[in-house]
Predict the structure of Poly(A)-specific ribonuclease PARN.
Amino acid sequence: MEVTRTNFKDSLSTVYSAIEEADFLAIDGEFSGISDGPNVSALTNGLDTPEERYMKLKKHSMDFLLFQFGLCTFTYDQAESKYVIKTFNFYIFPKPFNRTSPDTKFICQSSSIDFLASQGFDFNKVFRHGIPYLNQEEEVQLREQYEERRSQSNGSGNPSYISPNSNKGPGSIPEEHREYIGRVVEKVESLFTTSEKTVDLEPCTGEKCTGVLCDDIMGFQKERYIQISKVDDEERKRRERQKQEREQEELNDAVGFSRVIHAISKSGKLVVGHNMLLDVMHTIHQFYCVLPEYLLYCFLRLLDTKLMATTQPFKELINITSLAELQKQLKESPFKSPKVVTAEGFPSYDTAQEQLHEAGYDAFITGLCFISMANYLGTFLTPPRAHIPSQSKLIQPFVNKDHVLYVTFPKEWKTSDLYQLFSAFGNIQVSWIDDTSAFVSLSQTDQVQIAMNTSRYAESYRIQTYAEYVQGRQQVRESQGHSTQSWDEDGWVKPHYTSPSTVGAGPTGYSYGHNRYTPFTL
Amino acid sequence: MEVTRTNFKDSLSTVYSAIEEADFLAIDGEFSGISDGPNVSALTNGLDTPEERYMKLKKHSMDFLLFQFGLCTFTYDQAESKYVIKTFNFYIFPKPFNRTSPDTKFICQSSSIDFLASQGFDFNKVFRHGIPYLNQEEEVQLREQYEERRSQSNGSGNPSYISPNSNKGPGSIPEEHREYIGRVVEKVESLFTTSEKTVDLEPCTGEKCTGVLCDDIMGFQKERYIQISKVDDEERKRRERQKQEREQEELNDAVGFSRVIHAISKSGKLVVGHNMLLDVMHTIHQFYCVLPEYLLYCFLRLLDTKLMATTQPFKELINITSLAELQKQLKESPFKSPKVVTAEGFPSYDTAQEQLHEAGYDAFITGLCFISMANYLGTFLTPPRAHIPSQSKLIQPFVNKDHVLYVTFPKEWKTSDLYQLFSAFGNIQVSWIDDTSAFVSLSQTDQVQIAMNTSRYAESYRIQTYAEYVQGRQQVRESQGHSTQSWDEDGWVKPHYTSPSTVGAGPTGYSYGHNRYTPFTL
């Protein structure tokens, strides 16, 4: 399914429920370039440590744009022994939201653009109809803008009905505007003596009114004029509510595609990608926040099929690990192609007709590769099993190692309280979920169990492993009968305001200029 | 006429003859962005001196891509008292030429891209079918690559017929390749004993052969193999000639759109643009060379219609000088819309149906504005004249002031000789045309006449003003009956090699790391 700015809002509930019902998700991104420094092979050679590779990519790859995001959701149908898939191709573009919104600049690399062009990539769709997005900092700024504007507008405080010429002597009106202003005053005053409820002023350029409800209106012929309405208190409140709702919707529109990423993050589902470091880094960078200095401890459960294919027992069986070659090899013995059908209403891909380098197709193929490898692991069991679910313990060794704890606490707690709590366990990283819960990532794996043990008798707070948290969420969901209601407006991690006061636990792997924003929860 | 990579070569002679026959040219460019620093209005406000504006644009605007170039040629038809126009829309993209060619990175600014998208700009056409280009330095590098490869290839020196196993013992062939190499030797040796003229080796990966003519051939099924041919000296030379011609054509293809700019530069025609500094800077930067430190002394005869409209006698008559507004005002009295028809075979624009921000259309409108203003100047003459040609003295005050001399000299001269010759006249800037001629730009206008006078009795060299040079070229062309032959392969200014020895005349307004390349001749 192709998702652009045009159908994004209408598709969102479909996307949310596809994520919610899935057993695992596969993702892939297409970018406007790879490297603005060393050439691509130097950036992606296999000799680097993960840390070195992360630093190289952070330095040389983050000014490119992720402009197509592919998501393929895989749901296992136990009765039919097959996977049902839903594929989404999101076109992404940072269309400026208004005059004060960030005017993003991004780099294009000719070789990458030329390569995508040769694959039939539709740049017009990206630039004309791409879905906008904001990272958390931009979202907070925009929210603040709205709040500031609201507090400045007529609506705040008591309405004051002041005739425009009562506090400004006619002497302060320039000669050339005197006639116009005279007509305005006459018109507005006529409101109080006639039964008319509104009066439209002549088109003009931005005079500010006080005292009555003013609406800046665009006429049929694109002329702008101010409409002044006689209203009672009830009506005024109703209109303000309407305006706030409209503003909230505008804000949601501006956050745009980031809402999909928030939903993926919050779902706790296994996310599968092929050679996915760059995809994950771009996703965090564009839709969450500036990347941290050190290799990120990722809150997503990530599995890289390229990494999996180069690990035992696959290493011996698979020669070339490019996505296309991997898929070919996984069709042959000892592997088996999985049984997969496209969900009704979704356009289906034909694997015989390669559409590589469309993000949605690549995500789909990546998911197929994962299933084939996962199911191969089942042949070692006694008795052998044909289907290995993505939650199986057999998969665990291939999932990125996370040392993430889910912590609940009283709503008075600030980031500094969390740093204090974990001060004995080395560096931590905090990602707020809401007022009373957060993810805390420990830099030292061996400290996880100790932290869990010490918390056992605590009363004010509670610690769960990430796995326990995900399991808990799943149980709640199942008891609700797979309701998709949980994915409405509040279904994602919100930026959390903490006081910019001191932070206890020394160097944290983060170097923010301020600590007001959640680093990220991906 | 739309020109892309697909029809560029076939259109080139049409473009050349349109430039050649024109009275003046109008140009316009579309870019992937305006400013990577201060916002656009800060960059383009009218308060800066030209030097300040140049420095700002140089610093903040040159990493964007000029990806559409509009050219509209205007030819006056005396008999019919009307202009005949030819409009070209060139789509430009730095498609990498081969694996070693520059992989250009350029910035996109979301607001600019969004604006062009809203105007229906076709990005797919740019990225899929854009014409490549090289600046002079890249052209020289590519030429050197070809020469190096040629001197390394079999063709150079005497062919040496050596059997592959005569200078390498079989011991140096790895075990796993021995069988394959054996078959190769057998096949090649069979060439000398049979009547066959060629032998195709089995597909392999890059073995280097000595002794016979080897061709790297791509088979029907995309398998690559080496073909070995038995040839006599005659045949070998013929094939080398063919190869050189092919390489020259490849080189021309790579220089691509820059050839059009070279032709405009060489033509000496008046070039009209609207608010054209950025267009000119991008043109020099992409198709010539790194921009100099100081405001460029431009070798083109440039006229900016925005500047013209804000100069007497137009200043009093014209309020708003944006292109669209200017055009509207120039339709009304005291101005007159010029009589213009589109040349046969060219798609015509309808000025009623605005297509602003397509480069070709903007160039067209700019030309119309110029003609209206030029003809208005004719109303001051006694008797008044309805048509003022672009070469008229009445236009001179609006053309950028150039202090450019055309110098011819013996072919032994180097850049240092020119610096020595002009050492008495302040800073100069040299742009080579060929082995025996160059443009020399004097920084001090008042020195031009003195330089001319001192050269009068010189025998080894000759100096003409730029105007004399242009006039001379025109006379030659007319005597040839407007032949378009003069615009073939040699019709543009070539990079000129001078020894990297000392340069006499001190600071020159140029800060090149080397002086091997012509700064530019635009």
Residues 405 and 465 of chain B are 5 Å apart (CA to CA). The first strand of chain B starts at residue 2 and ends at 3. The first helix of chain B runs from residue 8 to 21.
